Each structure stands twice: as C-alpha cells, then as structure tokens.
Amino acid sequence: MNRATQSDTQPLLRGPVPLSHLLIRQFVRSGDHVIDATCGNGHDTLLLAKLVESPGRVWAFDIQQQALDQTAYRLTNAGCIGNVELIHAGHETIAEHCPRPVKAVIFNLGYLPGGDRSVVTLPDTTLAGLEQALEILAPGGIVAITIYPGHEGGAREQSALEARLRQLAPHTFHVWHMGQINVPVDAPYFILIQKSL
Ligand code: SAM
What CA–CA distance (Å, rounded) separates 165 from 162? Predict the structure, then answer.
C-alpha cells in the first residue's frame, strides 16, 4: 500500500493536527455552525466545510490576506467555498461576526506555514478569542486548540492559555490535554475543551 492510499484509509498520528482532526470528526455533523479561528493555509477550514456540508456554515478568521487567499484557493479546488464565510479579522472579534450557538471552534496557533514567521498568534488576542468561543459554544460543543510552545513567544502564549484553562469550572467545561510523550518538551500539543450538556 503506498503512503497516499494508507493515509486515506487510516490517520497517521504524527503530531497533534491529525489527532485534532480525528476528534473534530467525532463532534461536527452536517448542518452544524462552526468556526476556524485561524484559517492559515485552510486545511482545518476544509475539514470543517466537508463535515458541515451545504446546510451547515463555517466562519473562518485570519489577520493575513495571504492566509485567506490560500484558504479560498483550497476550498474552491475542493468545491467547498459555498458554505464558508472568510473573515479578514482577528479571532478576538468572533462575537461580532458569528451567530450563536456554534458546535466547534478550532484554534491552530502560531505562524502561517510558508508565510511571515514574525506574524504569530498572541496571548491577549488568543485569550480574548477563547473567551468568546467558550461563551457562544453549544452544550456538548468543542473548542480544539493546537499549541506550539517552541517558536518565539510560543511559551508565553502556552502559559497564558494553560493558566486560564485551569480556572474553567470542571462541571461546565471538560478540558483535555493531549500530546506525544516521546518528543521534545516544547513540541506542539493539543487541548480539547467540551462544554457540558
Ligand atoms: N489552521 C491553519 C491551517 O489549517 O493551515 C493553520 C493556522 S497557522 C498555524 C496560524 C494562523 O493564525 C496564521 O495564518 C496567522 O496569520 C493567524 N493569526 C494570527 N493572529 C491571529 C488572530 N488574532 N486572529 C486570527 N488569526 C490569527
């Protein structure tokens, strides 16, 4: 079996993103309203657009035009642009742009792969986006966050996020921490938050 065929039939759990996609597939259904808080090159937006299908809707944010263009290109090629709203704004404005409730919000932090590495997600705006996401989340809905502590400023963002996540009331939010154990301590990892029913 070649690599492409193998990855089509079973996920290869190398790093946190395939794990996040595995879990997102469990929660997002046709017709759902969902948010990609950092659309970047559009991989997560495409997954969401495919899962919610045409009765559903995706709101996808990025502060860089390059990221929105890349995402639009990927969605158009896959025939999925129709149910996606691309928003050139920071995720700290989620509450202004999105309906409520939403079933899932994905944050894939850090810099745009292949883009300007000095443009990164920042603790204050990430926390503001997180608060708004938690507020508009449907009961049983999820916030999925991929965190990259290894880049410049990444460890500060990690500490700020984890400090806030530890404060969330355990009967209201179920907060999970998932990362590979046989990788460097600053390797990327994944947080899943589910709002209680
Ligand atoms: N989800 C993307 C994908 O599937 O290709 C990868 C996202 S990339 C790791 C992080 C993105 O966050 C970058 O494109 C960057 O421009 C964006 N970003 C930085 N600050 C932001 C903010 N306040 N709101 C929304 N996006 C932001």
Answer: 5
In short, whether 64's Cβ falls inside 6 Å of ligand 1 is yes
- Whether residue 67 has its Cβ less than 6 Å from ligand 1: yes
| Ligand 1 centroid distance, CA of 1 (Å) | 34
Q: List, edge to edge, every strand of the sheet that includes 102-108.
A: 84-88, 57-62, 33-36, 102-108, 137-147, 189-195, 173-178
Domain segments of the chain as ranges: 19-195
Is the distance from the beta carbon of residue 110 to the nearest atom of ligand 1 less than 6 Å? yes
Predicted model pTM: 0.95
pLDDT at position 6 over 60: no
DSSP state of 54: T
CATH architecture for residues 19-195: 3-Layer(aba) Sandwich (3.40)
Ligand 1, from 17, 46, 63: best to mutate by most atoms within 8 Å of Cβ?
63
Q: What are the tens digits of pLDDT across the range 40-90?
A: 999 999 999 999 999 999 999 999 999 999 999 999 999 999 999 999 999
